[in-house]
Amino acid sequence: MVALLYAATFTIAKEIMPQWLPSEAFVSLRIIIAGFIFFVIQILFIREKITDRQDLKGVFICTLFGTLFNMLLFFKGLSYTQRINGAVLMMFTPIFTAIISGVVLKEGFGFLKVAGLAIATLGGIFLIGGFALNFSQKTVWGDLMVTANAILYSVYLVKVKSLMRKYNPLTVSTYTFAMGSILVLPFGFHQLVTTNFSSFPNQIWLGIAFVIVGTTFFTYLLNAWALKHASPSLVGSYIYLQPVLATVIAVLAGKEMLTLEKVIFAVLIFMGVYLVNQSKKQNA
After folding, report:
1. Rg (CA), the chain
2. Residue 284 belongs to some domain of the structure
3. Alpha-carbon distance 247 to 258, whole Å?
4. pTM for this entry
5. Tens of pLDDT along the chain (284 residues)?
6. Residue 153 lies in a domain
7. What's the number of domains the chain is made of?
8. By residue range, what is the domain housing residue 174?
9. Does residue 117 form part of some domain?
10. What are phi and psi of 89, to 5 degrees?
11. 8 within domain boundaries
């Protein structure tokens, strides 16, 4: 579900930024509105609190790496680079996550995990664009921002795992977005108050709603729940499904043709994720 929601984000967000909404304003809307949704549900149904100072420090770190700076870097980078570049660079998130998990959580680097990550990365890169990639001077800053976002999000996946062992996923997400709603204001407040929202057509509002509710609220909640039941490297490996799902969506919408090459690359991705899953079972 997370991969499916993210698969549509590259195209939708690119249609909104920067023509209609600056990236900083878009991130501010994401965090503040999604944070409000988390808060309401938390108050009505969960009512769990985080009072331990050490855990609150962990929440603060997760806010910086997984809610604030990674979103700012991703959306800003996406506004400077091409959709295909951003999608390919995100393929390296599982590799960063596996490395950080190995260092911090002492997760093993067995043959199956390494082979699975390598196979899925190759399949993802070629499925998204293969040799049509264009990493040039025009996109270099955007490419660097998206890469930095992938690293920060990998740190978040590893760090938030310890919090998931103690608290409800909804509680952790509520606290990170509550902190993020305050911390994001210096970056996006001016852009928010100077944006002419009344000029937005309906399709732009629908795109914004999709990113806030789907790509923010549901993805963070589902990822948090997944991390409660699986390792960070395993959760991260499912990002490889994004290009597969994006291709399926494009084919069903009549935007692309299904070819034998795409089927082969999709099979490589599934094979890679399967090997990562098998490595997890071996270490269980």
Report:
1. 19
2. no
3. 8
4. 0.78
5. 888 888 788 778 878 888 899 989 999 999 999 999 999 999 999 889 999 999 999 999 999 999 999 999 988 888 787 766 666 677 777 778 877 877 777 766 778 888 888 888 787 777 666 655 555 677 788 888 988 998 898 888 888 888 988 999 899 999 999 999 999 999 999 999 999 999 999 999 999 999 999 999 999 888 888 888 887 877 877 777 777 777 777 677 676 677 787 778 778 877 887 787 777 666 65
6. yes
7. 1
8. 2-279
9. yes
10. -65, -30
11. yes
